[in-house]
Design a protein that fits this description.
Helix content is 42%, strand content 24%. By secondary structure, the protein is α/β, with parallel strands linked by helices. This is DeoR/GlpR family DNA-binding transcription regulator.
């Protein structure tokens, strides 16, 4: 097979899988490591792919990763305070669910007490696995590459078999009728986890009151505690009070 024909087929396979390792290219086209490397260099020089550690990816995957990293850097000081305040609510031995959220990542970083944590977030897992006194349980399922979380039937089935002492959730936006998220699959996982929890605790900095998003996960009346970085204004204090949601302002 000529190189140009093979490059075309590599691109077709990459469009299906979005990422490919050098090993996968070698096996799919029965070529040597050196030949696979030359093909990768050629595609990279054309701008058709980006090189990753051990393979290639579509350019938009890199943009997605950079977008996610960018969100991690927003309102860092506020998120750190919120994460610390949330960690103080967890008692030794409790079983909790941590959702996918850049703010919940700071909860993971501040968690000290021995506990059992279930999470569908790849980033939460990478932080928690380093803590020897925390029992970490990964929620399985399909993987959303953009926001790095698992979802789907397998995740739903696993969550429905567990009772949590608390579910800690982030929020893309807070509206008068509840908390919202950009992706339906994300909202679905949060809704199920919340239904299995004794307490639902939402971690959200004050900017989330000014935002809009697509899919409702929970109405305000289902939220037991909201941890935020500033006192909500009178309008939001009244809405939260009406729904019996306790407000915790994270300290310095």
């Amino acid at each position: 097979m000529y190189q140009q024909e093979r490059l075309s087929k590599i691109m077709k396979l990459l469009e299906e899988k979005e990422v490919l390792s050098s090993q996968e290219i070698m096996e799919a086209f029965r070529i040597s490591r050196d030949t696979a490397r030359r093909d990768i260099v050629k595609l990279s020089e054309k701008g058709a792919v980006i090189r990753t550690h051990g393979g290639i990816a579509l350019p938009q995957i890199n943009n997605i990763i950079e977008e996610y990293k960018g969100r991690q850097q927003l309102n860092v000081a506020s998120k750190k305070r919120i994460g610390k305040a949330a960690a103080e609510l967890i008692k030794q031995g409790q079983v909790c669910f941590f959702d996918v959220s850049t703010t919940v990542c700071f909860l993971c970083a501040n968690l000290i007490k021995p506990s059992v944590i279930y999470t569908n977030s790849m980033d939460n897992l990478s932080i928690l696995v380093e803590k020897e006194n925390i029992e970490v349980c990964a929620v399985g399922g399909n993987i959303n590459r953009k926001n790095r979380f698992s979802y789907g039937g397998e995740a739903r089935e696993q969550l429905m078999k567990i009772r949590f002492d608390a579910a800690f959730l982030g929020a893309a936006a807070i509206s008068e009728d509840g908390i919202y998220f950009e992706e339906k699959e994300d909202a679905d996982v949060k809704r199920i986890a919340a239904s299995r929890a004794e307490r639902v605790i939402v971690l959200a900095d004050s900017t989330k009151f000014q935002k809009k998003s697509r899919y409702q996960a929970l109405p305000l009346k289902k939220i037991d505690i909201l941890i935020t970085d500033r006192d909500p204004d009178s309008f939001w204090r009244q809405r939260l009070l009406e729904n019996e949601t306790r407000i915790i302002k994270a300290g310095k």
